[in-house]
Amino acid sequence: MDLTILVGTQTGVAQLVAQEIELRLDGEDMRIRTLLMDDIDSSVFGNGGLFLICTSTYGQGDVPDGAKPFYEELGQKRPDLSAVRYGLIGLGDKGTHGKTFCFGAKKFDSILSELGATRIGEPLFNDSGTNLPEDEAAGWIEGWIELCRKELGVEAST
Ligand SMILES: Cc1cc2nc3c(=O)[nH]c(=O)nc-3n(C[C@H](O)[C@H](O)[C@H](O)COP(=O)(O)O)c2cc1C
After folding, report:
1. Nearest C-alpha to atom 30 of ligand 1 is from which residue?
2. Ligand 1 centroid vs 15 CA: distance in angstroms?
3. pLDDT tens digit string along 105-126?
4. What is this structure's pTM?
5. What is the DSSP letter of 63?
């Protein structure tokens, strides 16, 4: 199974989360690549496939600065993403930003589904005041991968 992790980050925490996920999935029969949203455009979705969006929130409910051009291009170009399956990890802080908790990730969830992509499973919304994001993501990822295997009809190798 191929997985592309798309990271939106301001200070690097979401990138740590992606690294932890790569470590956790090491040994699974998977090919994983991690890309910073700063470096990509909508062509990353190509002919579809499996993606994991992992992004924090900045400003007042915004996507991180480096992820803005990618996010805005999706809204402008509106590519057909009906062959895209994705999971969602949002990083945020409920105590300080309760009203816009994880809005960056929620914005990606909205635009991807508007463009025809299908989310697999429930998102993980991490509250950094409660749980370490990399620990919570490490616990979440195995269940999500199992769900992906079921939905995509891919057997786990033994
Ligand atoms: C200036 C600033 C604004 C923030 N705004 C929000 C917000 O609106 N909603 C939210 O849930 N978290 C918000 N956060 C919390 C970050 O998303 C959180 O700390 C996250 O773990 C940072 O991850 P990163 O290093 O990958 O960017 C904000 C943090 C800062 C410093």
Report:
1. 58
2. 14
3. 999 999 999 999 999 999 999 9
4. 0.97
5. P
